[in-house]
Fold these 4 entries.
Entry 1:
Amino acid sequence: MTWTGAGALFILVATYAGVAVGRIPGFRLDRAGIALLGGAAMIAIGAIGMEDAYRAINFDTITLLLGMMIVVAHLKVSGAFRALGGFAIEHAHAPFMLLVMVTLLTGVLSAFLVNDAICLVMAPIVVHVTRVIRRNPVPYLIATCTASNCGSVATITGNPQNMVIGALSGISYPAFTAALAPVALFGLVAVIVIVRIVYRGEFSRPAELSPEVYRGRMLPGQVLKATIVCVVLAFAFFAGVPVAKAALIAGAFLLVTRAIKPHRIYREIDGPLLFMFAGLFVVVAGAERTLLTPDMIAAAKNMGLDDVWRLSGFTAVLSNVMSNVPAVLALRPFIPGLENPHRAWLVVAMSSTLAGNFTLLGSVANLIVAEQARAAGKELSFAAFFKVGLPLTLLTLVFGTAWLALTS
């Protein structure tokens, strides 16, 4: 191995370890900073040139993510999410129906919009409602984040790793949804059943919900505008319009308003996530150029990743070790060489997403809900989450893998 190759290997391992942990001890670096530092280091040692680094960044993914962030931000700022969440929850007349409403609403919204943003909106609503009706918020909060992960598996726009896979694989939006929507639906039903069983004491105590437990302020004109744009956007996705193009146009159109100041939208955009993606793209490209040899590709084939069960299990473990987006990018060089790349990408999308329900640290959506709960004075513990997360992850992964093995 050359010195450049050794340096690239060190940078790759250090970057992925830093992104997995989320920080570097002694420094004020977050995941975005670590990824950008790794990309810059790859350029500095000559593992990849500047022009190649520019080309390595998949701007379809970045553009899609940015466009969807703007759409979600407009829905949030206009009050659309609060109004929809309040309406649904007010029509749940018992604790179990509240669980069903929270699960289905979160799951469906997460299927078409970025799931992390949905958790940011839903968690405070759930905390507020459970406080008013004097119920234990934990089962409903667990349902929120697990349903968000399960629902997001259905579409390319459901979560960041699916966006990456959509851009890298070339799988169309309708084909992706047709393959994985049944897995998402099964997951949502599984969330309801498992939370109901694990927290049966919560649902055995009868309680009537107040008819007006949650009322969110909204801008009716902007809500209507955003709703129309989202409907048109969904039609565009299924009609075959490139998803990045459709999302960017929709987001730009929503910025044309006299009611909402632009900075209210901009501050909802997760810039560090975009930077992290750009940095990771360069890190992986640098590693590919210096480390990826025919022997390494052959070794990957010898691992039996053509088998959907082995690929699913390997992806799930990798996603919990280094987080889902880095795991997807790490698998990128090997998927095209497999016997059925189309199916393999679907397996990776399914497994990397559902693996996020294994522990509280398994996905950003889980951490968002936990932080929102903590800010409201409620604690979502690792143990409480794991009681639901363990059986849910195993059940959904088995179903999802079997479904893709039979249908793809």
Entry 2:
Amino acid sequence: MNIKHERKMNGRFDMAGHIYILLTLLFTVYGQLVLRWQMAQTRGMPEGGGDKLLFLFQQFFNPWIISALLSAFLASLAWMAAMTRFELNYAYPFMSLAFVIVMVFSVVFLNELLTIQSVIGTIMVVGGLIIIARA
């Protein structure tokens, strides 16, 4: 019996599965925002190839970067748990919400620019998610 059939056969909302998806989103968004915030605090990527590697290596000692990498790992664990509950073609569209959340939070907390193209694209992403979620 496949996962999708089991989910529909129960006829109930799979709360645990959706919590796994939510945790994946939260950990992913946190990691992306922290990485951007911390990289914005630097003077930028050096020009030389060896200097670039050294710069990136040094970032591993930043506690905020460590927390972002840990967050990515936790997002992976939550996603693996979600994959035990749902088919990929059902669960993956929810990950598009990460784009929406990161966009909003980057404008609010990181003072990044919001364009009309981003807003229109976001509306399209959310519309597509609604269609897929109702399938």
Entry 3:
Amino acid sequence: MSLVINTIVAIPNNKTVAIQDIAIGDKVETFNYSTQSGLSKGNPLIVKMSNGTGNTPISQNMINISFGNNSSLICSLGQKILTENGKLKTAKHFMPNDNIFLADGSTTKIEMVVMGTYQEGIHMISPSLNPTTSLKHGNLFCANGIIVADYALNLGEPDNDELTGLNPE
């Protein structure tokens, strides 16, 4: 339920920042998902939780997901990512040719998934301190161009293959 340091996160005013540079009180761009509206940009929300190892690398099993626009995301096995059908899927269950949401609302195909032991610093953020299952309250954000669950949404959803948020309608 974490991302490697230097993962790029969208913040207000069309800017980006490395995840480890986001402090409590900073704002991040958020996203919502519903079956009626699909993916929509939410209001920028204030980060209430920002925690990680800093630049101190730890040895941890991680997933490197490469996707269509020559980009990738390295994350923990338990990190949840929004799929094209509006469901959250745990990173360890992704396969090539799965489709995931980009921040512009389009989708991209996963090209390669590599699990391995990485020596990286990790970080996690959330605009909420309470675990949630809702995809409609700003608990999705943009990391390296794709839509991922924040820490509160990762905690709220059980670790199954694919899940919808509780009543994404």
Entry 4:
Amino acid sequence: MKRVLLTGMSGTGKSTLIQELGKLGYKSIDLDEPGWSQYSADGDWVWREERVAELLATEDAEILFISGCTESQVKFYPQLDHIILLSAPAEVLVDRLMTRTNNAYGKRPEELADVLR
């Protein structure tokens, strides 16, 4: 099974792309969703590493697309066949973050500053 990570800062289109891949019939998992991620003791949104490791060990599809962005994702790079980094111009990121309704991340000044760094 090929394993592909779609990653990038908040607002680059990871969630939209992973949903579209699912609609096309590909096995696709948004690791930024609850159940796949959780808040750490210091308040960061991090992947549930045991669940992600189990997912990457499966062999039930020709291609597995996963999406998300967390500092610990580097632990999983050896298990991935491809890593695709999504990006967008700063003004596009700001517009997307300020207007989206499904996720509040990026609306607070300190979060927006992190995204634009």
